[in-house]
Amino acid sequence: xxxxxxxxxxxxxxxxxxxxxxxxxxxxxxxxSSPMSVNPALAGNGDADWRIVANxxxxxxxxxxxPLTTSSISFDGKLFxxxxxxxxxxGGGLMFLQDKGLAGAYKTNSIHFILSSHVSLDADxxxxxxxxxxxxxxxxxxxxxxxxxxxxxxSSGFNRALPTMEPNLANVKPYFSMFAGITYTLNxxxxxxxxxxxxxxxxxxxxxxxxxxxxxDPPRYNFHAGYQTYINERLVLNTNAIYVLESNLQSYTLGLxxxxxxxxxxxxxxxxxxxxxxxxxxxxxxxxxxxxxxxAGITYDIPMSASNSSLNTLKTYEFSLIFRSPNRGTxxxxxxxx
Length: 338
Hints:
Blueprint: H1 3-17, E1 50-61, E2 68-82, E3 85-101, E4 106-120, E5 127-142, E6 153-154, E7 157-158, E8 172-187, E9 191-200, E10 205-206, E11 216-217, E12 220-232, E13 235-246, E14 249-261, E15 270-278, E16 282-291, E17 294-303, H2 309-312, E18 315-324
Antiparallel strand pairs: 1-2, 1-18, 2-3, 3-4, 4-5, 5-8, 6-7, 8-9, 9-12, 10-11, 12-13, 13-14, 14-15, 15-16, 16-17, 17-18
């Protein structure tokens, strides 16, 4: 096993067991294209009745190393609309998320169940409040048969037939946790603004690979905001930002996107070009295309941290695909994440 592969394995084990180093949840560079991992109140938002969203992130690609991948697929929509005011609705969604690394030796699976509700604060739905509540079932698996340890080192290399001498290593027990969030939205004829906060893992959860009952995952809080407006008849500006607080870990990502109309149809084809910045970590260019009810996007993380030159030489790509229902509202401003 290479030195870099040992480093990544140590990072995973420390994240699961060390009191000083806390595991951070999976994070997408295109967080805006994965709304239900940002805030459960966003389930069912946007101008479509429903949508299917898929995301795939491959990071640490290079030097013959198996990448760490994060994949998700979700379905959300408006389940019930108020008869005399369709702006008020109850939404819901499901999301499956998987983290996988070291050629499958490390794998985390989770499924999210979400219910949301949107209430208009005026007759024209110029402003409104959405709230969401959800639960997560998650399990983490470590296949130690695919890993080599120092005790297996012999004169001829690693011999996996030898015992690892790590009798306490075990798979992390599955757990269930709760999360909730709220957002406020303000709309005009030419612009839209939203702001929200969400909290995850309000129930104490244990994720120790050493069966240590004192090792508990801390809560995570997401603070996010977005703004969309028309610059002219053929150009739209979309901006958003997210701040993540998890124990002693803090991170933020902010950026903007320009949507250029390529035709004048009722549901126009839009070329999206954007740039995001993740604090002290990466610069993230974005390229996307909206065609009919389909939307695709790709990002590439350009590392900006000098803390670890080995990891900074590796590459990170992320892809997103969104399919929205044919029934679309006419009020919404074209936006890659709504």
